[in-house]
């Protein structure tokens, strides 16, 4: 069941496009892009989430990521 977001699709898509453009401008390969995005997630959790909730948020994020990854080829 899809989750409802408090943010508009337009706002999400705009941020996603901007982030993708930065990675593209730097010609970041997939592994570097994933490393940078992972570090960004870690920094956000560590700086914006109460210590008692960090592991729960990280686990929820990881589960959401795994459920959104498709098994079929993206190419």
UniProtKB/TrEMBL annotation:
Give the InterPro entries listed for this entry: UPF0352, YejL_sf
User: So where does this one cross the membrane?
Assistant: none
- Database matches in SUPFAM superfamilies: YejL-like
The UniProt entry's sequence similarity note says:
Belongs to the UPF0352 family.
Matching NCBIfam families:
PRK13689.1 (NF010242)
- What's the name of the protein? UPF0352 protein A9B99_04835
Species of origin: Mangrovibacter phragmitis
């Amino acid at each position: 069941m899809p989750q409802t977001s408090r943010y508009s699709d337009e706002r999400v898509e705009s941020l996603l496009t901007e982030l993708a453009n930065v990675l593209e401008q730097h010609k970041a390969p997939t592994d570097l892009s994933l490393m940078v995005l992972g570090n960004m997630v870690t920094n956000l959790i560590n700086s914006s989430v109460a210590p008692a909730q960090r592991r729960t948020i990280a686990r929820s994020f990881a589960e959401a990521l795994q459920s959104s990854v498709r098994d079929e080829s993206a190419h």
